[in-house]
Amino acid sequence: MIDVPAALAWAGAEVGASVQGCVRLHGGLTSRMLALRHADGSETVLRLMTNEPWRTHGAELTTRERDAQLAMAGTPVPAPTTLALDAEGAVAGVAAHLMTRLPGAPMTDVDGGSVRAMADLLSTVHAQWPAEPFRTYQSWAWPEKWVVPAWTRHPRAWERAFDVLAAPAPAYAPTFLHRDFGHRNLLWSDGAISGIVDWVETSTGPAWLDAAHAASNLAVMCATALGEDLLEAYAPLAPEPPHPYWLVMDAVGYLPPPGRPPMFRQADQLARLDDWLDHVIRRPSGGTRTPGP
């Protein structure tokens, strides 16, 4: 059982002002995210790591998020400030992380200007050097996922993608990664990015893996062209040239493990994932656009 009242009492005690209001935030694949209003007028966000399989690893994930926010304090990266952590779930029955609430809201209408702002901020993230390196990135494109999906219109593209991933990973310059950077984890205020949230997957790895994830999200949720726009905007800011391996790894990572439903349930989103993977496979490593089939 998850004891939300106990979690709210804990959050109030940590802030030094009781919780007077609580609203559930949209999104949150891994967690229940609550926006809290305290008696002193301050606002916080409480993460309760409720959803499996992340709940099982809640202590590790919330601790990593706390450490990432500490590492970003005093940098140009607009991350929340950690306030309190109950990694073992002693209070609510699940791992809990309390942090400041940043201004702004997610953008629902992404355009070319916002894509360029995303690329600029991603470059700022990658320029950070925490005193202690974070864990090495984990691939989400496990070999168990290497099955051509039944819904694809591009079966050969998926086969080629699996061949790419079967080869050794290319060398890369170790870079600080958000690891889940994308438009859904950005807050905007007055036309500018005001915050980056969801730091539970922070890692060290190839910079292009972060860019690939941001591009894949744009391609699947919006349009292939916006995903490509992100890659092109980031290319002149990147610490090294792009490598197709990382783009393929991220796209394949959206496939479900055997026996599980797709992450994206809507037919149009699956179609865009299909088209994005085909686009990535056809894309030259130099970073220029490719003509359509």
Automatic annotation (TrEMBL):
Checking InterPro entries in the record gives:
AGP_Transferase, Aminoglycoside_PTrfase, Kinase-like_dom_sf
**Ranges for domain Aminoglycoside phosphotransferase:** 23-235
Protein name (record): Aminoglycoside phosphotransferase domain-containing protein
One Pfam family for this entry, by name?
A: APH
On the tree of life, the source organism's domain of life is Bacteria
